[in-house]
């Protein structure tokens, strides 16, 4: 039997943002196609820090027990270390729900979310590359998907770009192609699973060093995840050798030098170029919305990237659900574009603005030392700042209201 080629919503990208949107939409009765270019489980460059608020989302998505069954590490606090060894601690319980954070590999987490999307009723395609958009009179009305050597057109009223920082769909719009500029990315991110590290039990450690920062924390199976950002010129000076960058750049930080002294890699290094942080156009065309890192790339030191992925996926699903439920004469695709953009701004703008200010601690020489000393001296300010990287606690429960 031929599979249907027409859907209500097509989602490109099976990470937490795309899977979150797919699950919520499928539960709501929408016909959903989720296309993922890799075959899961697969490794992914990520800090692999799951903040406590994510538990609320896992519960609503129906995957909470599956996540716990994967054996994640529990992370009770995050400790930030300046290059010279000054430190400040932020308990995980400050992040809204009063619980602990989890350390779990993306291979494990994403696999469980993708399978849940399938169980919820979404059609899931793996090893499926979205190669182009279907554009009619400036409106996105589907995609071309290539699986193996075979390419087919799939149509939908709404398409979601959940392809991460690559924005693989948004950059295929004519305007994006015209404005594209070839430039050398200023930063490179690396990630690997390590063994034989000295990270403190139950702690996520953040290290600041010249022109970058990194994070180390425990995950499942007794391993630790190291994910760090370094300037492209420092990477080139190390001949693009990730081990050398870890030893010669990251280990400029006194605490990192201690924790990583005897570290051994348990997985291959992953690397990706970074152009920057912050918000993109979250609805770049009628019929096309973006979620997760495709919408905004929040600074990894906040530990809220996974949370924003799950939140934005649900936010988009709520907005699309309202559109699909409405009479065609009362809500157009253009209206959906405006409503989602406004809802996204209300929900995320504040924390993104806060993070743009905090970014100086990572990239302005000497600022991390001053910031850590200042915030370390005042718990009340530190607590408020930690919450500001998430937004008000009530937001977790008010997504539906924010897209009306």
Counting copies of identical and different chains, the oligomeric state is single chain
Radius of gyration computed on alpha carbons: 21 Å
- Quick check: average pLDDT? 90
Proportion of beta-strand residues? 25-35%
Globular, elongated, flat, extended or rod-shaped: what is the shape? globular
Number of helices: 13
Query: Helicity range of the residues?
Result: 25-40%
* Structural class assignment: alpha+beta
What is the rounded distance between the termini?
Answer: 39 Å
Low-confidence stretches: 394-404
The tally of beta strands, per DSSP, is 20
Give the biggest sheet. 8 strands, mixed
What is the topology?
Blueprint (H helix, E strand, L loop, with lengths): L5 E7 L3 H12 L4 E4 L13 E2 L3 H8 L2 H6 L3 E3 L1 E5 L5 E5 L9 E3 L2 H15 L2 E3 L3 E8 L2 E9 L2 E12 L12 H6 L7 E9 L7 E7 L2 E7 L5 E8 H6 L4 H7 L5 H6 L4 E2 L4 E5 L3 E2 L8 E3 L5 E2 L7 H21 L7 H26 L1 H4 L3 H10 L2 H10 L16
Parallel strand pairs: 1-2, 1-11, 2-8, 5-13, 11-19
Antiparallel strand pairs: 3-7, 4-7, 5-6, 9-10, 10-11, 12-15, 12-16, 12-17, 13-14, 14-15, 18-20
